[in-house]
Structure formats: structure tokens, C-alpha cells
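Moderator note: this is an archived Q&A kept for reference. The question asked for a predicted structure of one protein chain; the sequence and the answer are reproduced below.
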Amino acid sequence: MKNIFPTLTLGLSLALILGDASSYAQTTPPPTPVPAPATAAAPAPAAAPTAAAAKPKRKKPYVDIAKLKHDNYTSYYSKSQHIPVLVTYTVTADMLWCEPHVPQSNKFAVDPQLPGSTNNLKDYVRSGYDKGQNMGAANNICSEDGMDQSFYFSNVTPMPHFFNTGIWENLGKSERQEARTHGEVMVSVGALGKKTTIGAHKIVVPKYIWKVVYIPSDDMYYAYMFPNSDAIADDNFNSYRVKLSDIKTNAGVYFENGLAVPNK
């Protein structure tokens, strides 16, 4: 197993990823000393506090996140980063056994629940990054609505091409096979850190992408953490297995009924 946590100073929670952590560390400056009056006098009325001395307001956690529920997945979408920081979904055997299969539309679109923050199509043009799906289209081959919704930008994260079509696609195939074998799998996908940005909206390209596959019939979690890089495209995804506690700590989530939930 490869150690990809030399110093994960990415922010140990989604709250720190979404905002400037320095705003939590501000302190009120000490008041300027005032010399005592030379003679006794009536006390002067207290001066109103200046803007500089006012106590800074603490940001509310997750004020930037929109929770978007669709037929087959739920997205926790960062309106400032223009990517989902967490996507959760369930894949059952019934979702994969049907004839004929719904064709992939490959038409990426704004999410009608959040159109102003998901109008991201032009940002990917000549960016060097794929529109990587968190819940793969192949999980929705028996549902036209599910297929269309999987192409909403609330389900899309920038990924290098060979990463997206290599190790990431292979893990997706494995989770579908597990769903056929065990009847159901529950999947959580998230993004960590900031590698760069693309497009006019400055869409964040994360440093790391993680996935947790839970098999209810075995009560087993399989956790993975990947550098978002073409350099690992041909690697075996099992080389990037990590402890579930690593995901909880670094992504700032807990698991409830098999799926990740952001800490609050």
C-alpha cells in the first residue's frame, strides 16, 4: 500500500477546504492605553468601539455547500469551488440488469437545482482536464433520468484524462461487479485540496480524490485515496487502499448507514 499522507495539510475538514482558515485565527487587538487625568474630573463617556477593535464574525460551517438530491445520487456541491466536495450513491444489481440499456448521452449540463453555480461547460474547453463523473454513467444504464442527471456538473470533478479512463474507471467497474455479486453497494466519493484552477469560474482541480465502497451484506468498507494525477493511471487501485479512519480524519466526514456525511 502506498503512503500518500506525508503531511496532509490540506485542511482536515471540509469546512477548512471551503474557506480561508486564517479567518478563524483573528484576534482582537489590545486597547490603546489612555493616560490618567492630571486632576479629578467627571469620567468621560466611553467611546464607541472602532471597526478595528470589533470582534470578527466567525464563518458558519458549510455556508458554501448546497445539498442536491437526485434520483440516484446526492451531491454536496461547493458554490465557490464549482465542484462537489462529496457525492454519495447506492448501486443495486437491479440498476444494472435491464434490456435494452439506456445509451449514454454524454451531454454535460447545468444542474437545474443550482443553475447559477453549475454552468461550467466552457471552463473545461482546452483545460487539459476531463469532466470526471463521481457517480459513473454506467451505474445508470436502466434509468433515463438517472443517466441524464449523472451528467449534471454537480456530479463532475476535473480529472486528468488517463486517470479518469484508467484507474478511476477500473474502480468503477469493480464496484459494479460487487453490486452484481452482493446485490448492493453504497459509495461515497470526495475531493481534497487544491491543485490548480481552470476556466473563467476558477473551478478547483483537487489534489486528491477518495472513494469508499461499503458492502452491506459483508458489513465491509473499502477505502481508497488517489492523487488526482495521470502518473497513477495504470496502477492497480488496490495499491491505494487506506484506513477508513484516514478518510474520516482528512475529509472531515463520518459514516452513517454506509454513506459519508459531512461533519458539522
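Archived answer notes: The chain is about 15% helix and 25% strand.
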